Every structure is written in structure tokens, then in C-alpha cells.
Amino acid sequence: MSSPSKRREMDVMKLMMSDYKVEMVNDGMSEFYVEFQGPTDSLYQNGKWKVRVELPDAYPYKSPSIGFVNRIFHPNVDEMSGSVCLDVINQTWSPMYDLINVFEVFLPQLLLYPNPTDPLNGDAAALMMRDKEHYEQKVREYCERYAKPEDIGSHPEESSDSDLSDEESTSSDEEMAGPADP
Questions:
Q1: Which of 67, 77, 120, 175 is the most buried (most CB within 10 A)?
Q2: Which residues have CB under 8 Å from 157's CB, separation 6+?
Q3: Please, which residues bridge with residue 77 across strands?
Q4: Catalytic amino acids?
Q5: How far is it, in rounded angstroms, from Cα 157 to Cα 147?
Q6: How many other CB atoms are found less than 10 A from the CB of residue 57?
Q7: 36, 21 in Cβ contact below 8 A?
Q8: Which whole number is the average pLDDT over 25-47?
Q9: Within 10 Å of residue 41's Cβ, how many Cβ atoms?
Q10: Is 104 strand, coil or helix?
Q11: Residues of the chain with pLDDT > 90: what percent?
Q12: Strands laid side by side in the 65-68 sheet
């Protein structure tokens, strides 16, 4: 076993033994989900997110890929894909960091101190700079709507009201038309 794979196993096991709930995607240790609670005393404190983690083969020399599965309103998180814009993960990653750092330091800091000058979500960044009170209200609304404990299991496309109504209208159209002619 090579050193990077030993380190990957050690970091994943350390994360699993911590207070975080970790759900492995397959038998390997390269892809998994982590339940992440918003930091205390922040706009996100009542939110709970499912965060997808992918470890590259070269981990820890190459940074993990991190993304929120359920929706979050934040200037540095793409609202639809959940991708995170965080320098320490994307540009200045060091093998000295581990997965515990991501969930105990980097993500909490991101949520506590958003950077609207380097946005992935331009709407959130503009609203934060232009009308902080409305921005904070929208963050709380997203936490209430998309980041409850029961939302951890759902994917963004599953929580969309428009998708549900489209499916309903398709099935009712089929019922009205009857079976297709052979």
C-alpha cells in the first residue's frame, strides 16, 4: 500500500470516528458524504447539509473535491451544483491539512465569513453587498427550506417544486389520452 492510500484511509477513519456522520458511496474510500451542521452563532446555525467529498488518487498531495448536496444560499457556493469556492481547498491546499480541517475549520470559516468579491453565486454576492438584511433573511429561508435534518437524504433536483408539478402533469396527460395505439 502506498503512502497516499494509507493517509487517505487514516483521514477517512479519523473523520468517521469524530462526531460527523459519514456515508460511504462504495467500497473504496475515495467518495463519501458527510453530515455538516452550520456553525454556531451564524446565519447557518440551524442548517444541516449533506456534503459530498471526493478524494483524488493523489490525496493528500491534491485537495479533495467538496460540494454541498442540499441547497445553500452563499456567495462562495454555487447554488445549483453545490461547488465550493474556497482558496484553501482550491488553491493553497497542503498535505498538512486533513479532512477534519475541512469540516472543523475551513467550511465553518467559509460560512462565517463569506467573500462576496470572489463569488460562485453572483446573486448572493450582490444581495449581500447591496442589502445585507435581505441577504440574511434569504440565508435563513434557505436553511429552513433546504437544510433541515430530513433534507439530508434529498438531492437538489428532488426538492424542486417545479419538477414535482411537471411529473404530475405528465402522468395526468397520459391518463387523459389513454393507451397509445399499437
A1: 77
A2: 163
A3: 84
A4: 85
A5: 14
A6: 11
A7: no
A8: 93
A9: 7
A10: helix
A11: 71
A12: 22-24, 31-37, 48-54, 65-68
Asked if 152 and 49 touch (Cβ cutoff 8 Å), the reply is: yes
Beta strands in the chain (DSSP E): 22-24, 31-37, 48-54, 65-68
**pLDDT for the residue numbered 153:** 67
The residue written with cell numbers 479519523 in the block is 14
Yes or no: say if 75 and 125 are a contact pair by the CB < 8 Å rule. yes
Q: Is the pTM of this model over 0.70?
A: yes
Place of cell 469540516: 103
Give burial (CB, 10 Å; 0-12/13-18/19+) of 42. middle
Cis peptide before 60 (omega within 30 of 0): yes
Distance CA 47, CA 44 (A): 5
Q: What is the pLDDT of residue 27?
A: 80
Q: In sequence order, what DSSP letters do the residues of 42-86 get, joined into one string? A: STTTT-EEEEEEE--TTTTTSPPEEEESS----TTB-TTT-BB--
The pLDDT assigned to 142 comes to: 97
* Residue in the structure block whose three cell numbers are 485537495: 63
Cα distances from 165 to residues 88, 150, 168, in angstroms, run 40, 21, 5
**Assigned C-alpha cell, 180:** 397509445
Residue with cell 437524504: 153
